[in-house]
Amino acid sequence: MMGASAKRKRDPMTVVDDRWLHIKYYGCKNCGKKYKWKDSLIRHHRYVCGKDPQHSCPICGIKIRYKWLLKKHLIDTHEWKIPKGIHI
Fold this sequence. Notes:
Blueprint: H1 4-10, H2 18-21, E1 26-27, E2 34-35, H3 38-48, E3 55-56, E4 63-64, H4 67-78
Antiparallel strand pairs: 1-2, 3-4
């Protein structure tokens, strides 16, 4: 069996140091959150940063930021079944 240090020497991708990859991150000036893609930062500004969640569960009242996550919450938590022909 191979030890952890031997595996690290054999596989250079085990440890990744961002300084050597020269990856540019886009940072939010309001909260400091960093994103690899500019589009992700734009989405963060539009829907997340400094904003309250827009959707609430009709059953338990929990506030949820995204519509798809509300749908997942309803199915997973409340075992909600979506009738055929209804799009959410």
